[in-house]
């Protein structure tokens, strides 16, 4: 009996110490174009989406920064126009974003999921949430380097992306000369939009 009481007190003590160490999380706020930072190297000689200053030996591997990617100028109109087959391939279906990942922000997928891209042959595209157009922009494609150029106001999309394809599935990698976010997103071709 005494052992059970000691064990119960020990469980309550460990629970208290564990709960005391939890931090409150903040909800995701919509991104305002006016509050988007510019990329900075923070005085270092490298490009990175987020530079962590100071010494954080115990938290460096789990340090999270929930901030929209910086605004970049995407030269979609300065590259060679995409081929007819590339235009047809991208504009055939809607592209449903299935998942996104970034090591320094493990909640970044919330800004992508539930969204669809609809490319048009005139090098414009729409970002849709359900069946409603949220934004429009321009796109270009460098066939030799397999890089897609996306130009719009939403900085979670606005950038250049290295493209890996497998049928009607694409993975966009945010590791190009212009894109230093490290974000990766997977999208699948969809024959129709979901009904609301």
**Morphology:** elongated
Across the major sheet, the strand order is: 1-2-3-4-5-6-7-8
What's the total count of β strands?
8
Helix content: 10-25%
- SSE class: alpha+beta
Distance between the termini: 59 Å
Q: How many helix segments? A: 2
Q: What percentage of amino acids are in beta strands? A: 25-35%
Order of helices and strands: HHEEEEEEEE
Radius of gyration: 22 Å
What is the averaged pLDDT score?
80
Unreliable sequence segments: 23-36
Largest sheet: 8 strands, antiparallel, barrel
Q: Tell me the quaternary state.
A: single chain
Question: Would you give an account of this structure?
Answer:
It is a single chain. The protein is an alpha+beta fold. It has helices at 2-21, 84-92, and strands spanning 94-101, 115-119, 124-129, 132-142, 147-151, 159-165, 169-173, 184-190. The protein has an eight-stranded antiparallel beta barrel with strand order 1-2-3-4-5-6-7-8. The longest helix has 20 residues, at 2-21. Residues 23-36 have low confidence and may be disordered.
């Amino acid at each position: 009996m005494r052992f059970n009481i000691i064990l119960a007190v020990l469980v309550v003590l460990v629970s208290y110490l564990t709960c005391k160490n939890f931090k409150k999380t903040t909800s995701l706020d919509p991104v305002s174009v006016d509050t988007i930072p510019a990329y900075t190297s923070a005085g270092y000689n490298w490009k990175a989406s987020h530079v962590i200053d100071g010494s954080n030996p115990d938290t460096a591997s789990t340090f999270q920064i929930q901030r929209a990617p910086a605004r970049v100028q995407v030269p979609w109109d300065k590259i060679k126009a995409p081929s007819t087959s590339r235009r047809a391939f991208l504009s055939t279906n809607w592209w449903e974003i299935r998942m996104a990942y970034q090591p320094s922000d493990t909640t970044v997928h919330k800004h992508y999921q539930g969204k669809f891209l609809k490319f048009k042959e005139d090098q414009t595209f729409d970002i849709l949430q359900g069946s409603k157009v949220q934004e429009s922009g321009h796109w270009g494609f460098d066939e030799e380097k397999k890089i897609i150029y996306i130009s719009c106001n939403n900085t979670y999309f606005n950038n250049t992306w290295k493209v890996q394809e497998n049928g009607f599935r694409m993975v966009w990698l945010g590791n190009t000369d212009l894109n230093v976010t490290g974000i990766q997103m997977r999208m699948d071709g969809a024959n129709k939009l979901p009904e609301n």
